[in-house]
Amino acid sequence: xxxxxxxxxxxxxxxxxxxxxxxxxxxxxxxxxxxxxxxxxxxxxxxxxxxxxxxxxxxxxxxxxxxxxxxxxxxxxxxxxxxxxxxxxxxxxxxxxxxxxxxxxxxxxxxxxxxxxxxxxxxxxxxxxxxxxxxxxxxxxxxxxxxxxxxxxxxxxxxxxxxxxxxxxxxxxxxxxxxxxxxxxxxxxxxxxxxxxxxxxxxxxxxxxxxxxxxxxxxxxxxxxxxxxxxxxxxxxxxxxxxxxxxxxxxxxxxxxxxxxxxxxxxxxxxxxxxxxxxxxxxxxxxxxxxxxxxxxxxxxxxxxxxxxxxxxxxxxxxxxxxxxxxxxxxxxxxxxxxxxxxxxxxxxxxxxxxxxxxxxxxxxxxxxxxxxxxxxxxxxxxxxxxxxxxxxxxxxxxxxxxxxxxxxxxxxxxxxxxxxxxxxxxxxxxxxxxxxxxxxxxxxxxxxxxxxxxxxxxxxxxxxxxxxxxxxxxxxxxxxxxx
Length: 484
Ligand code: ADP
Ligand code: GLC
Fold this sequence. Notes:
Layout: E1 6-10, H1 22-27, H2 30-36, E2 40-46, H3 49-54, E3 60-67, E4 70-78, E5 85-90, H4 92-95, H5 113-129, E6 140-144, H6 149-156, E7 163-168, E8 176-177, H7 179-184, E9 198-199, E10 202-204, H8 205-212, E11 215-218, H9 221-226, H10 237-242, E12 247-249, H11 279-290, E13 300-304, H12 313-316, H13 320-324, E14 329-333, H14 338-350, E15 355-358, H15 363-372, E16 375-378, H16 388-394, E17 398-402, H17 405-410, H18 416-421, E18 427-429, H19 434-449, H20 451-463, H21 468-482
Parallel strand pairs: 1-2, 1-6, 2-5, 6-7, 7-11, 11-12, 13-14, 13-16, 14-15, 16-17, 17-18
Antiparallel strand pairs: 3-4, 4-5, 8-10, 9-10
């Protein structure tokens, strides 16, 4: 077995430098855990304006790269709070644009996203296959989601190349562009085919990873199965089933320092499994902060996430009133589609003492809701892994989830058997119907009133170990097998 030593990990976001969702959480923790496991790791990210602003010290200029006629620089910094060597790809398309990495302030994708993420991909492929001033080439190139899919395709066209791994965090985002864009990008013509980037007459960046990568992973075992069939495969199920022998589901871990109720600096009151009753202090502080009634006699239900179809808003909206009549209180934190934002705001205006809707992206509030809420709502239509339910389990905030993807792999439904066996950690429902969600929500509210049952479930949930160690081992094994 050849020893793997150098890993280039490419992502479009990484916490704490830039984050819109769970990909940032993964890219902000997995590479560092792999480094601690003995690999020589570089994390490659675009040098967005927001990233450059957030750096604690001026980055070092390492190299200037010529990427198909475009000049870009590699800057080096350390991922804040870690020694991880992080390479930032500096080019005006990234560094001269403030705000969200993918879209403008109105939510419209940046019109040059194909050029921007092809540049990221070209940089990754160039570093992986050419001698550069960096003096470093990886043994493994590990790309994530559509933004770096073409890096894998381009790497595979080179004579000498590292082994490649591609991780699907969300198949719903495929990086689809018109054929004219493909031509304008001057991508190699041989990539315009079914066993290439072509997808029903358009160009799909994610296919670069799916067709060419030596090994494909996704972020839970159940999602790995779901995407090999319709509807989970979203049109790519044929390709993914063909590649089944090289497709592995590895459950995401969580950063157990950032998300630790015993030491979380965002909380007004820290706690652990032995002092879980102190959650009540977080709850009353949040009720006060949000202008909710200071009630102790009913549960507080929390929702944190992108307000998009994937997250099951269609199931939540019609039954919010019935859940509140439980009685219960609800707090929602998220940004997303205007139709969902408006519907939630209208509901909050009707029930201001019981429903608080915060249309914001706010890390501190996300932590405070995890600590203050009794029950966490995550009725996703599909969920490749999901991190919020894992944070909820750790915070003793029992989740109500739909039986899909990583949710069903991580939450154990409270049934007579699982309660008797002491394994229950949440409330799982199957059909994507508002009534089924409501029923699960009501089961959770009823269980909350049964203190001994609830506390036993909290203890079980908080004792679960979702730290990165086990998952990182799986990636290390995969890298080793890929380089055998
Ligand atoms: P996804 O990646 O599909 O959005 P995950 O559950 O994997 O879903 O990860 C979402 C991450 O983004 C979590 O860390 C969650 O706390 C965070 N997050 C989502 N929306 C917000 C928000 N409005 N404010 C703060 N954090 C948020
Ligand atoms: C995606 C998925 C989410 C997953 C995250 C990190 O955004 O929607 O389920 O947890 O990536 O892998």
